[in-house]
Structure formats: structure tokens, C-alpha cells
Amino acid sequence: MILPPHLSVRDGHLWIGEHDTVGLAERFGTPLYVTSEDRIRENFQRLSGALTAHYKKVRILYAAKANGNLAVFKTLASMGAGADVFSAGEVALALASGMRPESLLFNGSSKTPSDHALAVEKGIRVSVDSVDELRQLDAVAKEAGKTVEIAFRVNPAIDVPTHPKIATGLATSKFGIPAGQILDAYREALALENVNPVGIHCHIGSQILAVEPFAREVEVLIDVARDLLDIGVDPAFIDIGGGLGIPYRRETDRAPTPEDYAGAVMPVFLRGIKELGIEPEFWVEPGRWLVADSTILLTRVNSTKTAHKTFANVDAGFNLLIRPTMYDSYHEVVAANKADAPAVSEYSVTGPICETGDILAKDRMLPELAAGDIIAVLDAGAYGFAMSSQYNSRPRCAEVLLAGKEAALMRRAETIEDLTATMVTVPWQE
């Protein structure tokens, strides 16, 4: 197995940075999410460096949905990141981390009046998903006596090689306004008093392992910019969204590097803006690429069983990591306390949830396992805890942040009391 550079094997145990994962499991309990702050910083610096090597006016907006822990936000805020936010909660986290309102973009296809009011109040730019939303936002801004800066989200009708549930730039996607209709939307925005169109926004999907779709996306946005100039809109930014994938299967996945990505999109962008005579900021919205490999999920084997196949039953299920069940996603798994032992048996790693689909890893060659062993699920930092739930009335687990030799909780484990804390006894049951 090929490990990412911040993971290693020492004395038979899996280590993350300067920490023995077995020791972390004993100290903090399992299940446990463990995140390397150092790795997030390394990822940010590499992506930022690859892009700014071509063009200095680059802004990185962290896709907040990938991992919503405040400590993760603070790490990225300290490096100058803004955020792509989809909810009032993500706005609150971004602002609490020190991100400036002007470094945020409020996205989404179904914003509420309160979402619009929050954006207007805080001075956050809004990516508008429809003409109906445009009119609603203008009314909210008018009532507040303010003007809100906007971009429209363009649907470029680009098919991308990824899971259909996360392909957001398809013509059939719920997101954005078709490129052929976008100019009319900008014309209407120009006629309104309380919105100011200042940018262009697009996002074509997630976990994309090819660079060509991103280059085609930029071509579409340059064409939109050309049309906007004709009606008097000089875009201050062009936002191409996120989507750069990672190699979950490191032995076989051929994932583009940040340098590959920048080498594909930036020449198209630079040629386009030079031809148009404009110098907008170049915005990107990475999430997965920044945080996915920073995190592992540690889970303890409760029992093993051989039936039609051999199962390793662990204490983490799809309530904590739903990607394998929801997307048939692949995550590498390592026997953390037997990391250098030979792989001698095939196991399916299964959780405690009352669903047949509660499988974290199917048919993996691992060392001989027994109750008490620790399994590490790799690359769990994006859409792991962020999509977790209390299904089966199971409290969600703790999260730990590592920095150098330091380790501390960044989210405590929930308790049984937490499950009922928001529940109220109805009058007729008292």
C-alpha cells in the first residue's frame, strides 16, 4: 500500500505525523477522527503556489461543506483562505474563524429569505442561482437599505468523469442558469437598484480526476465574460469552483497534481482575459483536495466472523462515514496496530448500523484480525464527519487535531444526553 507522506509505519504501528495512531485511540477512544493541521497547511500552500506561479490575483475559497470543524476553518483562515459557504451555519463558522465577509461567497440553489438577509447584513457576496432568487435578493436588500454584490452561477452543461450525484455542471443538474440564458439574467440584474453584478461563478463537480473539463469550463466562462463586457459588466472575479480529485486508490488512481491543474486552466484563463483586456481575480473553491487526506478515522474491531465471507465488525459505521454506502466510494484501510504484518486474509470491514449496506471497506486483504485491533480508514477528512449523523441513536464521535507533537480535541464526542438535549416532551405525554 502506498501511504501519503504524512503517514508512516514505525515499530509495527501506523503513525500520522509525530503521533502513534494506536496511542491516539487509547488516549481519546474510538471511533475517532484524527486530522493533521500540518497536512492541511501543506496542501493549501501547494495549491496556492501552483496557481499563483501563473497569475498573482488568485483567491482560494475553502469549500466549507467538505469539513465544517471550526479548527479546520481557523487553520485555513490563518493562511489567507476565504470560503464557499452554503448555509447560515457555514457563514457563522467562517466569520468565527477570522475570515472576512468580503472573502466569502454565499452559494446554493435554494436559499431562504433569512439566508439573503444574512448575506446583505454581513456584506457577503452572493452567487445567484436563478432569476427568481435575484428578485428575492433585491427585495431583501432594498428593505435593508443596502446593495449586495452578486455573481450568477453559470450551468456550463459539461459532463465530467465522476459520480453522477456530485456532477454539478451537467445540463440536467439543479445548479445554475444555462450559459445560453445567463446574459438575460445579468441584464435584469443591471436594471435593479439593490444588486450589483460583479462576478461570474461556476462549479462542475467533485472528485474529478482529469484536467480537461476544468479547461473547458474556463473557456465557457471567458465567453460569458466577453458577452458581459458588451453590456457594461467588467467582472471583478471569475470563480471556477472546485472539484479537483484525490487518489483514494493510490496504487491505481492517476489523480492530477495541483501543477497539472494549474497548467491546464491558467493558460486558458490568461489567454482569455488578455484578449478581453481585463484583469479579474481568479477564484477557486477547493474542499476535498485541501482536507481529505489530512484525516483518518480510527475504529476498533468488536468481533470477527466468517460466513459467506469474513467480516471485521468495527465500532464505526456509515453514521460516521457515509461515502462508501452513499457513493460506493473506496477508502484504503490499514490495521493500525499491525501495520507491518503480512496481509493474509480477506475481510469486509463492517459497522454497527442496522443496514446491510453498512460496509466501510469490501474484500480487503489485511493481517489476521481479532477483537481489539485498530483499523485506520484513510482519506476521511472530506465529507466524513461533515456528513455524519446520529442514525440508530448513536452519538457522533470525537475529532482530534494534530500540530507537530501536539494533539487536542477539536470536537468532543457526543453523549447519550446530547441525543435528547433538543427533544421536548409534548403536553399530552407529560
From TrEMBL:
Pyridoxal 5'-phosphate binds at residues 243, 285-288, 383. The keyword Lyase applies. GO terms for biological process: lysine biosynthetic process via diaminopimelate. Coiled coil: none annotated. The active site is at residue 354. Residues 39-292 form the Orn/DAP/Arg decarboxylase 2 N-terminal domain. Belongs to the Orn/Lys/Arg decarboxylase class-II family. LysA subfamily. This is Diaminopimelate decarboxylase. It comes from Methanoculleus thermophilus.
